[in-house]
Design a protein that fits this description.
single chain, about 220 residues, alpha/beta, seven-stranded mixed β-sheet
């Protein structure tokens, strides 16, 4: 039985919501750095997937159009509270990251911070991100991943069961997820807790679709 489901994530993050900021602030330096690497431009439409309480909003410039989604209503409620406190305009929705309720090519930028290792089906999530991203759009991923080529030993498999139940998977690899999409890695650097696999990855959507049609 797979405990990592939308229903379980909604339940546990509803419980985490009151103190999520306290834990999440440990990663603020990496969040800020990830967003800086996007080189955001005035007027761009930006989507936060798995936004939690909206911690990332404080690091975003005021002149971008922010949409934030999360599967947990308690988290989305806090996004609204945070946006009002920061005097920012944020469109927040309760939404499943596996099935984004947006038209194709809606956003210039998508931010995935600490969600790819959490969401039940990261392949579906990143595929949806690529779908709603405009050609040449950018994606920032900050999360922990197992390096390509590293074996998953028994101890790590056991640890993953516990970690996956409480927080997130620790045995996911990023490259296989990316290769199923039109996204290409343009930059990577290690982040806080590097030995645990945390890294920042910037990706760009190809301007050519799967059938070879050029958008330029």
């Amino acid at each position: 039985m797979n405990i990592n489901t939308n229903a379980w994530n909604r339940l546990r993050y509803s419980l985490y919501a009151p103190f999520y900021d306290l834990i999440g602030s440990v990663f603020n330096k990496a969040r800020r750095r990830s967003i800086q690497l996007l080189n955001l431009e005035s007027g761009e439409a930006l989507l936060l997937v798995g936004a939690g309480t909206g911690i990332d909003i404080q690091f975003l410039p005021e002149d971008v159009h922010i949409t934030a989604i999360d599967i947990t209503p308690a988290m989305v409620k806090q996004i609204g509270t945070r946006a009002r406190r920061l005097n920012g305009q944020v469109e927040a929705h309760v939404m499943d990251g596996h099935a984004l309720d947006f038209p194709d090519e809606t956003f210039d930028v998508v931010v995935l911070h600490l969600i790819v290792a959490v969401i039940p089906d990261p392949y579906a999530c990143v595929s949806e991100v690529a779908r709603v991203l405009k050609p040449n759009g950018r994606v920032a991923i900050f999360d922990k991943f197992l390096p390509d080529g590293d074996d998953i030993r028994l101890g790590r498999k056991i640890a993953n069961i516990v970690s996956g139940f409480l927080f997130s998977e620790i045995n996911r690899r990023l490259q296989p997820i990316i290769t199923t999409t039109s996204l290409e890695i343009t930059y990577q650097e290690p982040a806080i807790f590097e030995k645990m696999g945390y890294q920042i990855t910037i990706l760009k959507k190809s301007s050519t679709n799967n059938q070879g049609e050029n958008y330029d």
